[in-house]
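User: I'll paste a sequence; please echo it back and then give the predicted structure.

Assistant: Echoing your sequence first, then the prediction.
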Amino acid sequence: MNYDVIVIGGGHAGVEASLSCARMGAKTLLITILVEQIGASSCNPAIGGLAKGHLVKEIDALGGEMGLCTDATGIQFRILNASKGPAVRGSRAQIDMDRYRIYMRDVILKTPNLDVKQEMVESLIVEDGEVKGIFTQLGSRYDASKVIITAGTFLNGVIHIGETQLSAGRQGEFASIGLSKSWRELGFDIGRLKTGTCARVDGTTIDFTQMEEQGGDEKPIPFSFRTPKERFNPKQLPCMVAYTNGSTHHIIESNFYRAPLFSGQIDGVGPRYCPSIEDKINRFRDRERHQIFVEPQTIEANEFYLNGMSTSLPTDVQLEMIHSMSGMENAKIVRYGYAIEYDYIQPTELRHTLETKKIKNLYCAGQVNGTTGYEEAAAQGLIAGINAVLSLREQEPFILGRDEAYIGVLIDDLVTKGTKEPYRMFTSRAEYRLLLREDNADVRLSHYGKLLGLIDDEFYAKVALKKAQISEVTLWLKENFVTPTKEFIALLESIDEEKLNDKTAWIDLLSRSTITQEKLLTLLPEFKKYSDEVLEQILIESKYSRYIEKQYTQVSKMKDMLKVKIPQGFDFRKVSGLSNEIVEKLEKFTPPTLFNASEISGVTPASLEILHVYIKMAQRGKI
């Protein structure tokens, strides 16, 4: 059978990739090992978090499905870092893992242009350096113009539970051996990574009275900009907080020799920022206890996930260490925790479109690119799908800049720097994070979703109006001033605000940390005509206006810098601060401009700035 695009794998990356392709009009095949596991959450029952919430909001603004599914299946919604600045806040939701998976499967099966097949891909069909389709283990051949690999942890996956090793991509599911072999035979730079999950416990055997309760927000905010806030009223369940103790740590330390992580059984590198419990105990021996979040996996709350207790220790040790914690003395394990090793492609093998450099029309997205997390995977799947279809149409690729989106930062980091450990998104990775907030993702990116055909006219009209109103009001606040008359000082005092001494721009007055939406409307009652969303943006823009202007200036300088030409015969070895690897690549490719240099894998923004300084010095005859 012939398709425009084949997507291999039905996880978070595969879902967004296949939906974006089909919705953009491409005849698409999603091929997956188990159809009922489409959209499955292999590890924790949650979506979002710090920086990860940004990715989900951006996926939503571009027309992806993750935010809508989270709103439909969420069982607790919280804003993390709510007391901090808006740039570092993160939305997080506990999800009903069963309903999330069923929702995504149903959306996939109901989407026009999208076929689903339950088969395992055995090999890629490649001719003259170009992918032509796939063969499956059932002997089926499917031809396609584009192929997107989103196989997650299934490529040559090996599960570790103590000394036991199982060939699997997820507990109870086959590993994909043939596709991994096909990858290697094509000459890709393939490595091994490791991740893991924790035990799941029967909720009826937990004594929650011995734990701390952590509820959701009183007024939950939906993930999707397309979910009506006025109709968003999810049933929320509490999470509980338990703690390890000295006895727990002793049990784990006494069994280090049985831990695959320490015995040499595992070769793959694990996620530094989400270590297993045995790794935590080993690295932080001075800690008296570690926090464990006891999270419900479904609305029925009959099975709980022990967030913070990922492990690959033997089953008897898992039970003993869990029983050592207060409230868990009688806990029954339903599913044991495990570590999993899997193959990944070094992402420097990819272009910013996520197409491989070696094989034309072959794309990779998700954990196969060395990332960890549902959100990072979904973001890559969406971008790979979009670019596959644009390439079919012979249109310009869709590449988000680091100044436009966290998705742009994610992909740029991967394809230029590569990774030797599972890559996780953090707000600190984004240089322009004041511009790239969760709250303005719709304003930043929805016009792209509209152009791509992934956002409908009705929603985009609302975003366009919101964007115009924010710009109009922000400009008015900058250009209009208030004077400290007796009447105005009295008005300020009535709302417990410090008086003004001089003529002041409205935007500077509203930049005070004490100014709330209620106070804003007291000072400027004519603004009552604007929605709460617009007023929220106005306050944020006012409070951070000076810093936002600085970031816009930095963005402008960076864009100007990338236009700078590199002189012919420029001696890169004279540039102090560049690694030997970067120098060798620059000498090999001899890029004509700094922008072309930025497209070379391994050439970082910092190295571009150094190179820019030396080019200017050379032009002045100083080197």
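The mean pLDDT is 94. The first strand starts at residue 2 and ends at 8.
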